[in-house]
């Protein structure tokens, strides 16, 4: 039963192209995440003044 499930998941992963989407750029995604975190850090430090 386990080997059948593993075979089915492997086949599904191979048919879908490995899970990578052509329109998603890792640099754009990472840059967007970095920008969002830096923006949240900046907002936090503005409100944390004594």
Summarize the structure.
The chain has 50 residues and is mainly alpha-helical.
> What is the structural class?
mainly alpha
Major β-sheet annotation:
none
The helix/strand order is HH
The percent of residues in helical segments reads over 70%
How far apart, in Å, are the first and last alpha carbons? Answer: 62 Å
Helix tally?
A: 2
Give a structural overview.
- By secondary structure, the chain is an all-alpha fold.
- It is built from two helices and no strands.
- The chain has helices spanning 2-15, 26-47.
Task: Considering the chains and any ligands shown, give keywords for the structure.
50 residues
Q: Which SSEs are present, and which pair or pack?
A:
Elements: H1 2-15, H2 26-47
């Amino acid at each position: 039963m386990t080997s059948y499930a593993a075979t089915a998941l492997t086949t599904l992963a191979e048919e879908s192209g490995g899970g990578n989407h052509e329109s998603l750029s890792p640099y754009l995604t990472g840059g967007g995440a970095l920008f969002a975190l830096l923006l949240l850090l900046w907002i936090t430090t503005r409100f944390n003044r004594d």
